[in-house]
Each structure stands twice: as structure tokens, then as C-alpha cells.
Amino acid sequence: MLRTSFNDDWFVGRDQDDRRDDLGPITLPHDAMITETRSPHTPNGHNTGYYPGGIYRYTKRFIAPPEWQDQHPTLEFEGVYHRSRVFVNGVLAGGRPSGYALFHVPLGTHLRFGEENVIEVVANNDDMPNSRWYTGSGIYRPVHLLTGGPVRVLPTGLRATTLSADAEQATVAVSVAVENGTSDATEAEVVVTLNRKGREVASGRARVPVDGFGTGTATAEIGIGHPALWSPDDPNLYQVHATVTVDSAIQDEVVDSIGIRTVTVDAEHGLRINGQVTKLRGACVHHDHGILGAVTLDQAEDRRARLLKSAGFNAIRTAHNPSARALLAAADRHGLLVMEEFTDVWTRAKTTHDYATDFEEWHERDLEAMVANAYNHPSVIMYSIGNEIAETGQPSGIELNRRLVDMLRSADSTRPITNGVNPFLNLLAPSDEKHTAQLTKSAEPDDEKGSGGPSGRSLITVLNLLMSVMQKVTPIIVRRKFTDSKIREVMDMLDVAGYNYGGARYVQDAKRYPEKPIVGTETGPGQLAQNWPLVESHPQIIGDFVWTGWDYLGEAGIGTIRYNDRPRLFSPWPGHLAGTSNFDITGHRQTQTYINEIIWGLRSDPYIAVRPVDHARDKRTPSLFRATDAIRSWSWDGFEGTPATVEVYARAARVTLELDGAPVSRGRRHGDLLTTFRVPFRPGTLTARTYDEKGKEIGSDELRSADADLRLNVSANTDGFVADGQSLLYLPIELTDSAGMVKPTADRTVTVSIDGPAVLAFGSAAPSSSERFTENTHSTFQGRAMAVLRATREPGAVTVTISANGCTAVSLTQTVSLP
Fold it and tell me: Where in this chain does the record put each Glycoside hydrolase family 2 immunoglobulin-like beta-sandwich domain (predicted)?
């Protein structure tokens, strides 16, 4: 089918008591939640960072050309959050409860051809809370119009499978599912070509009989000599083009990108891509983009994939839902391996109105939609059927696990399957009988206020809290035999045993179950140093995924180190970010990413970081989900003489620290990588040196204090700023000295003014703030902020002026060109 954008000229309004304030025209994708006023009183609370939900109606008017009558026009929605209903000229034509599922709505029987038609999409996100993290609201992923001929390719009917591949020869099977829109039986011919860099390299053809109003699938096996294989180091892509003809007349065409690669996993060799052993240096990633909200835009997904790869990650886990097509395409381009995850809940709810309500009725169709979206992407090398599922230790969950595995293998037999099983959760979860009793209790009115005990919706909160406060005891508990009895049946059904915070089981399970590959589906950042040597030394342990690779909205404060606060799992109002420790929401690399590189063996030099000196005298509240709050700065104006904690990370026998060339106090060693020093702060140059066992210097790192100057430092980053309603211009904003050294204690309010065809999103990585990302003023955090401009459909010049008290304003102009 021909796929064209259907993202332009929509209007959106909030449906409430029959009152609508329509905004538009807007270009999809659009996140309505990010525009809402946050409130400490929203039922969503910390789950969404105190953003409320709502009911939103998107409207688009258009003329349906007469020629569409024979082209079976169909709308393709990549994701609408959530419980969507699609109306065509007032008639309900489709929709989807899941906010993450790809779905299609045939339009033909509802359209008035040659006349104006109205599409209305109602997204009902008013059933709060329905997620443990920020979801966004509305049509936050792209919409496309699909059209085809009388005998046409089904919307997800093109699938390519690598049957075999090596440096000399590859064989790819391309199947094309077609549908006959006429009453007459016919025979269709499908011609498939593979192209690389604009040149045809191989082709094949097949014929398929199709009954009247029936379907059929043609499959062509194509050989490719000396193929350019896809791998994380060389993400080579091909374009596959399929043409459907009947009696030599072209009926339909479809195009997609594919990669030629093989994926195998076994206990003896672990994970192999094209026969090469690959260890997963993984990052769990939620779907939002911080100050942009949940909108799925190609450049945002590409930027995140590129930055994660540059920091040493080679894999992402889509936590905890099927990902956007743009993310998978970016992973394809940059060579990121993807664990595509299905859901956070099965039948036992974690929040009052979550997917558990719809699971029984919809899970099979939603699972098929996940496969359809992922199938042709070479980056997707594994599926996960769940995350921290409470029932996997009970008979009902064990049976459901088996059903899901069987369904997934039937839909896609080419990729291994895992499940993010949390051993500790399996111990806490109630039996089937107790859960049934709890469901009965849940019908009582007071349960809506959260009075259910650990056997109800608060179970996952109890889990996270206990893991945080019992970090020393948890490894002992998860290693016990009674824990093994709770998880073993589920693990036996999987191709790869998935351990969620179960690294303490790696070694013993590698011995007990030598035939079962293992992956760490989720690990606290502070646990990576212990887990990674086990991954490297055991072939059957294929990798480890840290929580999280990129900070996110919602689960407010779960990864934040707070000061002078009582121990608590989540931040109170106005907390809005999780506060995890790899990349912050603006895409700034935090200290943890450099620690990871040292752990993975990708960085040989030491790395200096300093705990915030402005909080040196405050009491810190630790977090399982953040190992350090130290940042890369020795510029702490106003705190001269304050004791500073300097952290030096290195693989070395000995570490020394100098200030302006003079040795400072002796450091204290913590494990294999970290040495800390207590140094009264004074401006200067801080130098760390590392030595091997023989006393030879093997590396160094340096921090220099900023000078007295203060200025706004602004740069412009874009992959092309064009008038398509989708393009982005990133403007990192820093408060620096004359040499560009960031000053973390110089925070102030910054104003961004724009003149021209663009829309502004603006904010910082402050984990707790009442400021809005939709306003043009925002305070910096530790000297940094980020402005993002989204182009409209109009070309022209955009002038941006950035100003702050005590700084000279900065202006720059960027041209929005024609597409």
C-alpha cells in the first residue's frame, strides 16, 4: 500500500461537560498531557509527575477524492493514548484500548467520495491513574493514510526473514500478504527487488491465487552474493520493494527497509549476531522525550539512539511497552540492538485503571501488533513478554506465560523470547486464591483511595521500597531455593531467562541450569560493576540492562538523591522526573555513563566527578536507582572552604589527587573502581592520576575551575530544519565562563523568545520543579537548560533570542527550508 502522512491540519480540544476549546490547526504527533497544568491533587500523582489526564477529541476535515473508492483507504495509527475511538462522519469505525498498539481503521464504507469528510479521534485518558509513569495523552505517534489497488498488500503484509547469511552468500525470504478487494478470484504475481544505495542487487518473484474478497501470501526466496550484513558495528540496510500485478497491470506497491543478519542464542556461545558473540550493554528506556513530552518524532528518536550508542550502550529495552516505529528505525540506522517489550501488567493491576482491565480481551491482538511493527527491523533481536509480572510464581501466571510464549513463537519464530521476572516480587505476590479475594475487596469504594494492602495495587510500590531499603539483604533472599521454586517453571519456558534485579542469581543459576541462557533485563546502576564481570566470564549470560539509560517523566523521584528529606520512594509535589543517572532528559551525559564505559572496558582514563558542594553539609537520601549525584565540575562559587567529596573512577591499583599540582589528602577506596577524597573547595585545577601495580602512571583526568566571567553559551544542533511540522532544532543553553566552563551554582531564570515559524519547548533536568515546559521562561539546573524548536509547515527564518539576568543576550537565526 502507498503510505502517506495524515498528520496535518488537525484540531484538538478537551472534551469536558460538552465544552471544547479547539486548538489548531496542529500537526501530529501531539501530546495533550504535556500542555496540561500540573497539580498536586491529580489522581495520577507521582506516577505521571503530577500531570493530569483528560478526554481529548482530535478532528480533521478533508475531501475524499473519487478515485479512493477503488483504493481501500485505511488509516494507520501508530499509537493513541489511550482507549481511543475513531469516528468517520459520526460513525464509530475503530479504536484501541492500548495506548501503545499499532492499529488500522478502514475508511471506505464510511466516506463520502468527492465531498468533505470528518475524522474524529477521541482519546480517553481520564481514568486516572492508569500507568506507573508518564504516558502522554492523545495522538502522540504518527498517523498515515494507506491506499492500494483492487488487489493490494495488507497494511503489515510485507515481511522479510534472513534464512541464512555469511560473508559470501545470504538468502532472504520475503513474504507479501495480499487482499483481493473484488468478488472475482484471480492470480497475482509479486515481484520483489532488494536495493542498496540506489542500486538493485537481487530480485525474486512468486505467484499467489486469491479468492474473491479473500487473502493470500506470496513468498520469494532471494539469494544475495557478498551481502552487506547488518550488525551493531556495521548497520547496513537494504530497501525491499514489492510490486503486485494482475494480468501485467500494477495493482499495488510497498517499500520497507531491512537488514540482513542472523540471531542465535544458546548457553554454549551466548548471543551471536551473524555468528559473532555479542554481549548486551543495555539501557532500559521509557518512551517520553522529557520537555517534548511523549511525542514521537524522527529526529528525537534518532538523537537519543545516537547519543546512547556514543556512550557505549549497544542495546535498549523498550520499557515497558511496544516502541514507536521511529525508534526502531533509528536503532536500525545506528546499530542498537533492541529488546522489544510487550507490557508492564498481565491480569493483576499495578494501578487502578491500567492495561490489566483489557488484557484478557486484547492481549492476543496487541501481541500481534507488536510483532507486525517490529518484524522487519534488524535491530529487534529479542522479545520480552512482560516486566515484573506479579503472577509469574502462581499457576495462573505460569499458564499465561506459556500461552504468551506460544502465541509469540507462532507470530515470529525468528527471535528469542524472555520475560523480566523479578524473584523478590514472586515471593511477595499473593497466591491465586488470595488475589481473587483481593479483587473482591477492590470493588469496595475505599480501595479507590489506595487502601488495598501489598496484595493489591500497592504491591509494586512495596517491591521498589523494599529493594531500596534492603539492598544488602535482597541478594541473599533472591538466591534461596524457595525463591527458585517460585520462578523456575516460567524460566524453563523462555528462550532466555530474564532476571529483573536478580544479578545475585547469575552464577548459581549458570551452574544449576547450564543449558539456559540468562539476561539481566533490569539492573540498578550501582549493581553494574558487580554484574558485568559475571556477564563477561559466563558465555550463557548474554548481557545486562541498566535502569535507566535516559531519564524520564513520572515515577517522580525514584532515582533522585534528595537532601534533608525523610526516606521515601517517590518525591512529593512538585517532583516530576524519575531522576535516574545516565542521560538526563535534555540528553546531557551524566557521570554514570562514564562509569559504565570504565566497567565495560571502553574507557582507560580515569574520570573525576564531584558531589554537589552546595549540598555538602546536607543529609543525602540514597536511591537504588542512582549510584551517585556527583557531576563533572570544580566550579563552586560561594562555597570556598566547604568540604567537597571528589569521586575518581578508574581501573587502577592506585589513584592520587592533586590540587594545583599539590597532593591532597589520601583517598578512600570503595570496591574496584571508586576512590573518594575529601577536599576543602578552593578554585584551581584538580588532577587525578592512576597507577598500575608497578607504580607506573597509566592515566589522568583534570577539572578546572571557571573564571569570574558569566555568559550564556548557546549552540544549535539539527539534522535538518525543514517546514514539515516534524523537524527539530535543539538549543543547549549553558551558563559558563569565558572558556565555556559550566558554572553549576550560577542558576537563574532564562527567557527564550522566538520570531518565526516554530514552536518552543523549554526546560531543564531539575527533578523537582513547578515550571512548565510550554512556557518561554525556565530556570537552569546546575548551569544547564535546553530549548527545542519544532518547525511548523511554513518555511522562513526563525530568530531565537536567549536572555538571562547578568548575561549578555544571545541571538541566532535558523532558516526553516522547504521539505
Answer: 161-261
Give yes or no for residue 152 having a pLDDT over 80: yes
Predicted confidence (pLDDT) per residue in 355-387, tens digit: 999 999 999 999 999 999 999 999 999 999 999
Q: Over 421-458, what HEC string results?
A: ECHHHHHHCCCHHHHHHHHHHHCCHHHHHCCCCCCCCC
CATH class of residue range 2-147:
mainly beta
Helices and strands, counts by H and E, the chain: 12, 46
Of 264, 423, 283, the residue nearest 341 (C-alpha): 283
SS3 759: strand
Asked if 1 contacts 152 with a C-beta cutoff of 8 angstroms, the reply is: yes
Q: Does domain 711-816 bear CATH number 2.60.40.10?
A: yes
CATH 1.20.1420.30 fits 151-258, yes or no: no
The C-alpha atoms of residue 541 and residue 535 are separated, in whole angstroms, by 5
3-state secondary structure 547-562: CCCECCECCCCCCCCE
Q: Give the integer Cα–Cα distance in Å for 24 and 32.
A: 12
Give per-residue pLDDT as tens, 601-617.
Answer: 999 999 999 999 999 99
Are 151-258 and 603-632+638-704 the same fold in CATH?
Answer: yes
pTM over 0.85: yes
Domain boundaries, the chain: 2-147, 151-258, 277-596, 603-632+638-704, 711-816
Query: Domain 277-596 adopts which CATH fold?
Result: TIM Barrel (3.20.20)
Q: Is-contact 678 693, C-beta < 8 A? A: no
Cα 595 off chain centre by: 21
CATH architecture, domain defined by 603-632+638-704: Sandwich (2.60)
Tell me the pLDDT tens digit for each residue of 23-65. 889 999 999 999 999 999 999 999 999 999 999 999 999 999 9
pLDDT tens-digit readout, 202-236: 999 999 999 999 999 999 999 999 999 999 999 99
